[in-house]
Amino acid sequence: MNAKVRPEHLRSPGHSKPCSRAEMEARVARFRDRAPDPGAFPDLKEQQGQRSVSYMLSPGNTGGPAPISAPHNFHLSISTLSKGVRPTVHSHPYNEVFMALDTRFRMYWGEDLADWLDLEPFDVVSVPAGVFRTFENLDDRVGHLVAIFDHGGDPHTGIVVPPAVFEKFYRNWNPGMVGVQS
User: Fold this and answer.
1) 15-24: pLDDT as tens digits
2) Measuring CA to CA, how many Å separate 157 from each of 71, 94, 128, 151?
3) For the chain, percent helix, then strand, then coil, each to nearest 5?
4) pTM, entire model
5) Where are the beta strands (DSSP E) in the chain?
6) How far apart are CA 159 and CA 156, in angstroms?
7) Other residues' Cβ atoms within 10 Å of the Cβ of residue 144
């Protein structure tokens, strides 16, 4: 086989940067220790006990309180949803990647959410920037959905919502309170 050599893929000899156990432990987010952020989105009050968002990795805690706040070029959260519960419809100015962990989820997308597809556990979908979307847990037990925000800055900037969602949840919402609203 005559494969093209890609110099950027070549490896070089070297040594590991030192990293103590304490330094590595500070970069661990344990699922069992996740803490929901009640102020992440204004609709969480309405869905209390049925849905939560826990940031596991958020550079500088800009998305919300997270065990891992070291610099990265993305954010990672875990949403916990009861059957039939949907987050408010919205879009971001960057790609979002989702993976169902332990239940089936239906993702709805588009202006009228007319399109949908189902995700089985460990299926992954990458939602393009600017596309409205929401999810729904299809199973009769609480489910978990991993979200990776393909953006290292504040993930709450540039969010677009349909006009009806804006009037219901966002017109009088203080976005400066993300992470601390109750």
Assistant:
1) 999 999 999 9
2) 18, 10, 16, 10
3) 15, 25, 55
4) 0.85
5) 51-57, 75-81, 96-100, 105-109, 115-119, 124-127, 133-137, 143-149
6) 6
7) 19
